[in-house]
């Protein structure tokens, strides 16, 4: 496969990627950041997969059950037809126990449709990132796979089909529905077809109910709902964390070394996701995330890291898996992420923005008010003492620190939102000091980030380089959309960073040379900026073009190749989908307003 033509299934505990041909090529169990069970995505020979194989006479089509996370792959040769319904169980437990049933399991429900379909199975698990030998044994009730070399690990496959035929890759003649249930734990009660079907229907109802809470929009409603479902699948219920993506080491450019592990919770990415999902009306995910933040900050003087493990781990040691060849030969494969040590001042403003948004939207339903006020005071103190220092910036430059414009703007945002939170809680005694600080940061940015020659706010103080992140100055309220300086900045960014409708993050050299792929969220930011400054038709044309570059299921990764338009980088990417939702909501709102005006004009006539 030349593109990231994968669907994601998940249950807010872990996730798996299934190719458009029905091959399960990436899965980590029992949790998102556990060692992989299947990693063909990162090494076609060694990684391991779970494949449904048919002969060349079959055509294969794939789509989600509408408004759910159940992925259907349909195989048909015109006469003989069957479907594979892939999902990870998730549904409400019956009372009085309550909560959610979300076991570390994947179900592949094989639905007989018509004729006499025949398929084979390639079942080849490679536990612990395929670091040692995985041995597989047929037992009375299941197929067990285990490894002992790196550390002991096991996986169990239950099936309604003949286990010997499955393991030998023999023909399976389908005459009725069947199933595969892959579980991290041995089952107490042996699965049956009826029980597995019930799991699928309960899971379907859960997702339909969740999607029903997302409003229906005038335009792009299907794209908004699919993106919202994807963001939900990247959330981790146990702690409230939100992952940047479900994968590790998918390269930003084929054959290069910008390969990172994204199965962690970046404060920036997660806070942006929560803000958008909250606007869609999903309160619980926001509440859980705020509790995640509260739990991370027990000490009043403790600085936030830029990222944490999904179970609140603070140390995310980075290492390489030299035995894996990497996606399309792009080494190294990394697990862990050394960026957790970096200083990035923007996280404080982004977090304060999401805290204020929650207070504003759910003021009668907010919990932990005292803890949130305590965090607000702590952030204002940290920003007040450190905003004048350089940092690594939003793009995580691994070498020198700089005075990045985006970081400064978000320091301003932190104090601006702290002022609003103080007013919300009636804490008047903080206002005078914080207002002075807010004014000082704002004036510093206008003085030092503006480049007269470029007629734009640039990447960092004194720099001639443009950077897509400065487009967010308007979104965070630092500057008005129609301000001549902002309009000029949008046009300067378009001139220098836009190529064939796609945006570079920046074009100056970083730690690994010149960037050579488009960063998807930056294109969405640019489109949103065009829309805000009044170039609405142009913005919508760019948006429709960008949507056409998604994969067959409407999913986006982190990057897009300028030339081929293939998806690159970790997948699916929370950043990309939250920005898609923001654009689509703005466009839909505007379209609704136009329709209302046109309707009023008709009635007047």
Automatic annotation (TrEMBL):
Q: What is this protein called?
A: Glucoamylase
Query: What GO molecular function annotation could you give as one example from this UniProt entry?
Result: hydrolase activity, hydrolyzing O-glycosyl compounds
What is the superkingdom listed in this entry's lineage? Bacteria
Q: Where is the GH15-like domain?
A: 220-584
Which Gene3D superfamilies does the UniProt record give?
1.50.10.10
**What biological-process GO terms show up in the record?**
carbohydrate metabolic process
Q: Which residues form the Trehalase-like N-terminal domain?
A: 8-138
Q: Which organism is it from?
A: Arenibacter certesii
